[in-house]
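Budget justification, computational time. The allocation requested in the original proposal was used primarily to generate structure tokens for proteins on the priority list. As evidence of use, we reproduce two of the resulting records. The first is shown immediately below.
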Amino acid sequence: MPSGPGPIRDDLIRQIAMKIPPPIATFLLTSETSVNGIIKHHGRTNTNTIQIVDMLSSGTYSELKAALPSVRIVQVIHVIDEDSVDVALEISRQVDAILLDSGNPRLKIKELGGTGRVHDWKLSRQICEGSGCPVFLAGGLKPDNVKQAIEEVQPFGVDVCSGVRTDGKLDRKKLYDFIQQVLSQE
């Protein structure tokens, strides 16, 4: 990954995925952008879900699903502007879920997650309302804003990384507080 904290080696991902019972989703976050590269990366990890953090550069989602029929595909959409809404809505009909994040793949060194920044939740709400699949919200979420984010965006679920870390390490209190805020929505 060109950005974001906590990369895990492929062999460790495989070891973890092998120990998790099938009903629980195991994720491979990949910055591979070709279908062939994604298939090869998955072969090294054997997860039941692939989260693609950049846009496909070659191949199609149909080809990926045909090659890995039992694997769920989650496409990350970096919400930058109105164009992001159009892209997300088109892709939402081709994948199993989308995840809205605050990276910027247009930069010289791409930001593909873990930025700690919030994006425009009004755009995310438009995506949730028109999506053909479940939408997860990420990007700058932390214990003190996740409740508001859920209220404003109405996502299927939320995803957190840097918002529950202190000095780059997972912070149990922040994680507990985050989960309490999410649960207070029910």
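The second record produced under the same allocation is shown here.
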Amino acid sequence: MKKKKMRQKHNKKRNTAFIFEVLIRELTKSIVAEDNKKKKIIISLVRENFKSDSFLAQDLDLYKGILETTNVDRHVAEKLIFESRMQHCVLDGERLFIEQTQLINKINKLLSKDVFTNFVPNYRDIATIYQIFNSETKTKQRILKESQLIERMIQSPSTENDLEALDNLTLKTFIHKFNEKYDNELISEQKELLTKFISSFADDGAELKVFLNEEIGRLKVFLSEAINLSDIRQDKAMVHKTKDVLALLNECSDRLIDSKMIQDILKIQKLVKEINT
């Protein structure tokens, strides 16, 4: 008697959104550990395999379209899921499978199989989308899964701030290591900068660049005015230090945004906070 083939409910390594998320979390861990070699490998893998004309990028966009949608009416949510499923159906499944296989092999070879054990906070939603995209999912099960997603999509967005949304051990470890190294507790501006920096690798740093432009401008204005304060003006050492910091900020526009630059800005933010209290 021929054995009935068991259908696998969720194959993590064939879930494009899951692969992307574990890579981003492995990238965060490499930043925490100051492992520049690994960081460069991961950034290269993400840029090479998720470029706009790749099937992986097209597949990821379909996942994101659902994952990032909140506070819409039920009709819109239903239509978005339906259209996303239809678009996924016309994707070249064979080419997508090949690209996934190539990326999985590179991860195993250049990084480690342990990458796939990284914790992904929205794993349940990612797995649910995988199942509604999977043509082997039975109709009843698919409809139930779609209903779960629709209920999430019609809810108002969470009130969590960016730092809470990135609630994972790697971010906490990064903050802990910075506190140990510089013996201070992070202020809100520093937390926001760290959050933007760690999440920047998912959007090529676009949001981080905007934030840095505004934050550096704020720091320059404050220090330019602070240098005329009586407490600073009467202290030659403080005047000299303030001018050095302003010079450093002026050089930032020509610097590569890396962990060294971020640490410089973090220290300046703390200095400004101390002057302002």
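A brief technical remark on that second record: Residues 21 and 120 are 7 Å apart (CA to CA).
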